[in-house]
User: What shape does this take?
Amino acid sequence: MTTIILIAVAAGFFLWSLIKSRKKTKESLKIAKGLFISTAIQIVGVLALVSLFLAIIPPELIKKVMGGANEAVSVLWGSLIGTVTIIPAFIAFPLSKQLMEAGAALTAIAAFLTTLTMVGFATFPIEKEYFGTKFTIYRNLFSFFAAIFVALLMGVML
Amino acid sequence: MMTFIKKHKLITIAMLAYLITLIVSPEIFINAIKQNSAFLLEMLEILPPIMVISSLISVWVPNDVIIKGFGNTSGIKGKLFSILIGAFSAGPIYAGFPVAKTLYDKGASVGNVVIILSAWAVVKVPMYLVETSFLGAAFANTRYLLTIPLIIVLGYLMQRIVKRKDIPVSELDNEITEIYENLPQRNCGACGYTDCHDFAKAIKEGEAKMDECKILSRSKEIV
Assistant: This one.
């Protein structure tokens, strides 16, 4: 259902663009093509690795770590895993769905998604170069707790 | 062959991993392939419309338009603009570092820099659509509604703690920065690199050429 909405949004935007400017629309299609090819290659690689990983790791383990009886612990695991991994956010969503089907808690997945994009263990040295140590430590620390906070609230609301 | 491996590290690793699995345990191999094809089919449905939307945003909302509108860096308007910069930009958070730093050098506050980076990470139009498709609208809406106010709180907290003297003024790598500034900074990824900064680095190291940038070569065609 949402896929249909997605396609409808894309088609609507595209039509609007086509009416507004034929040239700009052509430009955007060129970019979209390049974007599609480069992303597709990346995605195929990551998805293949993730599938292999899921085939090797028993679902019980995922359930134990990210969907245990103690939800706070699962959320903590979710946010820790999100902090140390760097995968494109694109791939994180199908992966999250898969993890949830394997038994991961909704809250743990929410925490995982937020820390994945906001908190970066691997990007720490890059951020430090731009903004200094103090900024980087505090931003990542606060974002980490914000992610946990949002996840726990989502658990209450959903 | 070598350049293929270098450019597509992930897929090379994946192929090797599958080869090893096939030898060690054909059963796991078959399971993984099954899992993989389900994944891929789902991605194939979603990827093309997302790409169309992303690139239309790139064409219609160029970075410099938003950055020019950023003139007012204080108050609610500044915060709103900060979120918009993040939401309409492409690429992962580390692609946002150079952009946010440029705005900081032009006078944006520490708090707004934090808001830009956080929004860059979490508040994304195309990503929101992907999230809705896979995890449902209720999940995505709640996560966004809770995160956005928190991002503003985060900016406020950081503003109080981190002072301007804590942030280095040093230029990173002059040559890379110079190349980077001549790029469109759209982080469209059409050149095969994750973002413009990666591409600039590759140009400096002689791995890539400026005219591999799809946007630049496009504007040349028009001239």
